[in-house]
Amino acid sequence: MKKRFLTGLVSFLCTSVVLLGLVYAYAGAKQGVTKYKDVKNTKKDVEYTPAPPEDMGISIEMPKGERIVFLLDFADKEIRVKSFESEDVFQKDESGISVKYSAEISYELFGDIIDRVGGVNFSENEKTVRLTGAMAAEKMQNGKTDKKALLSAVLTGISTNGIGKDDFIYLLENCESTNLSLLDMLCYSDYITEMVDNIKITT
Fold first, then answer.
1. CB of 185 within 8 A of CB of 63?
2. CA–CA separation, 71 and 82 (whole Å)
3. 74 DSSP 8-state letter
4. Which of 53, 62, 90, 84 is CA-nearest to residue 194?
């Protein structure tokens, strides 16, 4: 009888300890969840502004050595443009912006880009005419036109009419060769679309 009583008492105490442990564990877990929720609810969103890309240059090169160098100044949100009629090496301008990318394009693609920005007004022999892309490409190719003047007119047209992300992608997908990837172009295009309103032609 005494042995049975002791066995029952031990069993009761063990059961009580287990139940108390479960209650304590549940209370602790619940308290932890509450604390987590409190911290989460008091967290404030911090607005993140990405830093602009590093300034850099893009050289657009055509078959007979004509080159247009776009210097992208992301800090000042402007594009400075230089054009050349020869293959003179261009490394960096006075501000220190160096050419990082290049793209070789055909005269046909040159004309396509002009059409995409709405044509170009070109003054020749004291007359101003509206050139389509095909007409501008032919003038660039035949060697009888002031190429720097034509390039300057094209850049003025781009500055006036603007250029969009689709135009950059079209240029990249149809150029002869380039070290500029589609991912690079997409990263820069949003900035360039805004900066194209502030083109400074320095040729």
1. no
2. 8
3. T
4. 53
Going by C-beta distance under 8 Å and a sequence separation of 6 or more, which residues neighbour residue 93?
A: 57, 71, 80, 82
Strands (E), the chain: 56-61, 67-73, 78-84, 99-104, 120-124, 127-131, 177-178, 199-201
Q: pLDDT tens for residues 114-172? A: 998 888 999 888 889 999 999 999 998 887 788 888 888 888 888 787 777 788 788 88
Residues forming beta bridges with residue 101, ordered by sequence position: 58
Q: Are 68 and 60 a contacting pair, CB within 8 Å?
A: yes
Give me 49's structure tokens. 């502004």
Determine the Cα angle at 159 with ends 157 and 164, to 5°.
100
pLDDT in tens, 89-111: 555 566 678 888 889 999 999 99
Find all residues with CB under 8 Å of 116, minimum gap 6, and list them.
133, 163, 167, 170
* 21 vs 15: CA distance, rounded Å: 10
